[in-house]
Amino acid sequence: MSEFTVGESDFLLDGRPVRLLSGALHYFRVHEAQWRHRLAMLRAMGLNCVETYVPWNLHEPRPGAFRDVRAVGRFLDAVREAGLWAIVRPGPYICAEWENGGLPAWLTHEVGTRARTRDERCLRAVHSWFGRLLREVVPRQIDRGGPVLMVQVENEYGSYGSDTGQLTALAELLRAEGVTVPLFTSDGPEDHMLTGGSLPGVLATVNFGSHARVAFDTLRRHRPAGPLMCMEFWCGWFDHWAGEHVVRDPAEAAEALREILDSGASVNLYMAHGGTSFGGWAGANRGGGALHEGPLEPDVTSYDYDAPIDEQGRPTEKFWRFREVLAGHCSVPLPELPPHPPVLDTPVEAALTAWAPLADVLEALGGEETVTPMPPSFEELGITRGLVRYAVEVPGPRQPYPLTARGLRDLAVVYVDGARAGVLTEEEPELKEPVAGPARVELWVESLGRVNYGPRLGEAKGVTGGLLHERQYLHGIRARGLDLDAFEAGVDAVPFGAPPGEGTPGLYRGTLMVRGAGDARLELPGCTRGFVWINGFGLGRYWSVGPQRSLYVPGPVLREGENELWVLELQETAPDGPAPRLLPA
């Protein structure tokens, strides 16, 4: 048992000053069988602590339906066994380039922009969630023999709102549920963020990527006393689909880290190891500058983050530069690196032997069809990640008119009388060719990830403004959703047939014959956009627009011999194009 406290100028462990050298590693972005390897890599880099968020929506997909919350406790046990301390950031909002910033879509659908305020409905839901989550955290605090040193109140709240009463309510709730270690907040080093996001009597920390002394000077204007800590040192960054791969010079990043430590501060590397947004959980941002009201920018599946430990768990040049800096602040020699996990021995080409059209997949795995005057949103249909088919009859006879999906979020493949008529987006919501009546129109609408940061947090998905033929609303919308969670039970209910030759969308099923199972990357060179699973494990979204060109496959997902592959292609495949292939990571 130990006591961790916040002193006048230092963190104190049993009354002695201690500096936190922490690194972010999200348990939910790393296969559980690889947690111990990644934690050992953090220790080898010179860190003494690990920080993790907790995504509420992953663990409570529907109100009161909790899913594997015990994973949090198992991770914290692995942290203790690795000889590290832990910082837990339970939100309820986490950002993290994660779907909806970690907030459940069912909650933001109900309360809208009140999701991060003292709205009674919101706080009631948080109370229920924390009541379950904190059972995994409270017994693992340092004063009870566990690794947990600190717990965060909300996350970067000053970048979003000014309802400090909500922060007070959350802090009181954490205390009431048994959190006894120090609480803290974290915000950008700007006056309006610190005034909106900090609480009297609660440690305030700051997040930045450079100019440490300037950031800490700002913090000191607000908090003349207390330990200095950069809770998020952004040593890399994330990527968007159709954007550029972002990198940061290792030498420059190491010098920025050195400046933080030379300031006498503690630090948390964000990210030390980014991992992967498996299962289609990657979020999205809005462009358009500081207001974040511009075009949607979906995050790629990889969360490599240009971190010092890459997506496959390997040390990068940044790792070695950081290790050199951190070694100067460690009182004992740093441990050697752990052995790297096995890597796939032999490349494998997939044999795709079965296929089902999207309509049959929807019939087998989708929810109930609804008929409503206006298109229901994903949230109204209970769809978190996946797609919705909207079908409507255009009356006739009538001459050709433009057809528009008003308020489309995010992307729709459109069919008119069974023939593909085009792809619509939020920026281009009108079909290029007018539609004459009578006609049957289907729109297969896909969510590309809910916004995880800024004022558009919690916005609805689907056709949110109606379907227009010329200026006339089309009513009598038939809608049916296909949630990615439906694939967790398998695809045996889907009526598969022989694969088509013309490159049509649908669910493709096949096998990978593996020898020498280990970490691998899956390439899908003939595919456009969709999701993929191996042995029922959701690898995430693929998209030919790049910059990500392959998906990471953790070695524990694979087995010797036959492995099952599902590819849900939502747009088109190349006719007789190259087969998916598994390559050594």
TrEMBL record:
PROSITE patterns: GLYCOSYL_HYDROL_F35 (PS01182). Residues 505-563 form the Beta-galactosidase galactose-binding domain. Residues 375-476 form the Beta-galactosidase 1-like first all-beta domain. It comes from the Bacteria. InterPro entries: B-gal_1-like, BetaGal1-like_ABD1, BetaGal_gal-bd, Galactose-bd-like_sf, GH, Gly_Hdrlase_35_cat, Glyco_hydro_35_CS, Glycoside_Hdrlase_35. Keywords: Glycosidase, Hydrolase. The keyword Hydrolase applies. Residues 11-326 form the Glycoside hydrolase 35 catalytic domain. Pfam families: BetaGal_ABD_1, BetaGal_gal-bd, Glyco_hydro_35. SUPFAM superfamilies: (Trans)glycosidases, Galactose-binding domain-like. Belongs to the glycosyl hydrolase 35 family. This is Beta-galactosidase. It comes from Streptomyces camelliae.
